[in-house]
Amino acid sequence: MDADFIVIGGGIAGLSAGARLAAHGSVMLLEQESALGYHASGRSAALFEPNYGPASTIALNRASAAYHQSADGGVLIPRGLLLIGTKDTKDAFAQDRDSMQLHEITLDAAQGHWPILDTTVVTDAAYSNAAQDIDTDRLLGHFAKCLRGNGGTIATNAPVTGILRTSLGWTVTTPQGRYEARQIVNAAGAWADQIAVLAGLDPLRLSPMRRSMARVPAPENMDVKHWPMLFGPGENWYAKPDAGALLVSPADEDATDPHDAYADDLTLAEGLARFEAHVHYTTKRLLASWAGLRTFAPDRALVIGPSAQDSSFLWCAGQGGYGMQSSPAASQLLADLVTGHPSELDPSTIEALSPKRFG
């Protein structure tokens, strides 16, 4: 055997899973691209908001908080989150306010956070200071360092072209060679269903969804560094500061096949228009644009644990837009399931995350 575990995927899911498992056995991580975190993980808005997501994701977020605060000296940076609404979006505003446990604030207070808000349009505002930026480079690097520090190996430019079940485990074929292990961790993001099919297992009907982002200049003569993230009603756009500029996303979820995603110009324009309808700001140029694929299971909860068809095939997939913030607890759960160690998560959460929920 080359390893105890072959981890397929070098994004946040694979790196965090590999780091945890390397403490319990030998790990070989395979990444198809030339760099780690190349796809969705490297294109994330990277916000830690503990109350964002379905119930099982919120449980993972909260269980991840202490790790984020301490890993490599801490990977969280204060940001805050401001939700706004208009007279036409009161229901969507109220639903988001309650689901994310935000408290309502006055329009004057909201304008204190975002001075360019158009208060002739914005009628409602709610805020939380619990939201924090995640230093994604630092977090990815931390998990890679932990993996290697425990004797794990990482191979880039190693797309998986074949998977064979053997009497002893699995043989995985790449252009760089063949690797053998007792167990496989499928952390391939948008390609996770394809990996399952290569292994002779049923796909879970995961859906890769494109999410686009534009980087635009900050308003003239304004320092945006301490502005919070700004959510539109119903999350149909959002914006946040980024290194002296603004990131604006149309919050698109366009179903697509797995690929190296790129932003659609029309989708970006529509998202920028929705943002501009709430602020005193007009986009004159783009500094950059990009897109990533956020991959969801049918019920939009993460998929963590052994396959119902073969317990030596482990899923760590379906992170959607929650991969960065949930990664410490998600990877710990995977390691606990492998080793038989009791999890700090409650049984209902573990069941809600299990691949076996799909039959």
Question: Tell me, what's the shape?
Answer: elongated
What is the CATH topology classification name of the largest domain?
Answer: FAD/NAD(P)-binding domain
Total domains = 2
Mean pLDDT: 95
* CATH evolutionary superfamily of the largest domain: FAD/NAD(P)-binding domain
How much of the polypeptide forms β-strand, as a percent range? 25-35%
Euclidean distance between termini CA atoms: 31 Å
Helicity level: 25-40%
How would a textbook summarize the main sheet?
9 strands, mixed
Low-confidence stretches: none
Structural class: alpha+beta
- What's the number of helices? 9
Would you mind describing this structure in some detail?
This protein is an alpha+beta fold and about 350 residues long. The chain folds into 2 domains: about 5-65 and about 135-205 and about 300-359, FAD/NAD(P)-binding domain; about 80-130 and about 205-295, D-Amino Acid Oxidase, Chain A, domain 2, CATH 3.30.9.10. The chain is about 30% helix and about 30% strand. The protein has 9 helices and 20 strands. Strands 5, 6, 7, 13, 14, 15, 16, 17 and 18 form a 9-stranded mixed beta sheet that branches. Strands 1, 2, 9, 10, 11, 12, 19 and 20 form an 8-stranded mixed beta sheet that branches. Strand 11 (about 170-175) and strand 12 (about 175-185) form a beta hairpin. Helix 2 crosses helix 8. The two termini are about 30 Å apart.
